[in-house]
Write a structure and sequence with these properties.
Length: about 325
């Protein structure tokens, strides 16, 4: 997977230089940390929060999904990046050389099952026998499986239709599917365009945990390992800034991704929890293990899979002390 450099220079400099925490003194000039950004979030957020002035060179590559970030990391193209709980499961199954080094608290209200506004489907149990779209091997397939199980159903009781988000939107608009498990800005945009109704959100079915992962070989390099720790602290502080400046961030992010500001701001205000970066805990490991077990049951990965070796807790004290 080729590494795609962002168009903007992210060299050290600017206001808000983060004082290095103890143990990070090796994160210095001469070191280049290659980070993944997802839909233009990380670089714009760090810049807005005044956290971009690193003592090392920081570059960003744009990636469309966590699975692609894992592939790039395993190929040695990037050093650190964020993702849902799903890609680490496939990493564990394939032997990918990544480590989960921090836990992201993120929104799950933006992950839902949509039905048309005039649909007779009123409860998850009504999905029986229906055509339900989802994005294969993502959070949507996981929370859909859990929603069905809670309703006494399984994938065998529906006609599951794996679709990309773009194809899912077309199928939903054309009536080719009866319900659609989807995430992100596709949710408010579809609701605004067609009056679609939220049948159920993923709140209570997804943990709300996401993952910051690092390339295993980067962690073996003392200077890169120190730079990763410093980068994680900057992300944590940038998210604290975001929470205190939702309207400012909505304007910046709207411009960056081309989504109307009112939709971005509405999703920020409706979030199930504020973004934060936390240490790896036993509960976080157990949550990813639950994903692995579910995907094994669905036949998506060979099972059983033990995800515990994927986790590296070296930044636990650093993130806890900075809270």
């Amino acid at each position: 997977m080729p590494f795609l450099l962002s168009r903007r220079s992210l060299l050290a400099g600017g206001a808000g230089l983060l004082a290095l925490a103890p143990g990070l003194s090796q994160a210095k000039a001469g070191v280049t940390l290659r980070a993944a950004k997802y839909k233009g979030r990380e670089d714009n957020l760090l810049r807005a929060a005044g956290q971009i002035g690193t003592p090392y060179t920081l570059t960003f590559g744009e990636f469309a999904s966590g699975n692609v970030i894992v592939e790039a990391m395993n190929a040695g193209a990037i050093d650190v990046g964020s993702m849902s709980e799903i890609p680490p499961v496939f990493a564990a199954a394939s032997g990918a050389r990544i480590k989960a080094v921090a836990i992201i608290a993120d929104d799950v209200n933006n992950q839902v099952v949509l039905v048309p506004k005039d649909s007779p489907i009123r409860t998850p149990a009504d999905l029986a026998g229906k055509r339900v779209g989802y994005v294969r091997a993502t959070t949507t397939q996981y929370y859909l499986a859990r929603i069905l199980k809670t309703a006494g159903l399984s994938f065998a009781d529906i006609t599951g239709v794996p679709l990309t988000p773009a194809d899912g939107r077309a199928a939903f608009d054309q009536g080719a599917i009866d319900a659609w498990a989807i995430y992100g800005y596709s949710v408010p945009i579809t609701i605004a365009a067609s009056g679609a109704r939220v049948l159920v959100t993923a709140n209570g079915y997804l943990s709300g945990n996401y993952i910051y992962a690092a390339r295993a070989e980067a962690l073996d390099d003392p200077q890169l390992s120190a730079a990763i720790g410093d980068y994680l602290l900057r992300i944590k502080r940038a998210w604290a800034w975001q929470q205190a400046h939702l309207e400012d961030w909505a304007t910046i992010f709207s411009d960056a991704i081309g989504v109307p500001r009112d939709i971005v701001l509405g999703q920020l205000r409706n979030a199930s929890q504020p973004n934060d970066l936390k240490p790896v805990t036993d509960d976080a490991v157990a949550s990813v293990q639950a994903v692995a077990d579910t995907f094994s049951e669905l036949g998506l990965v060979p099972g059983p899979i033990d995800v515990a070796p994927l986790f590296d807790r070296r930044y636990g004290d650093l993130l806890a002390k900075s809270a």
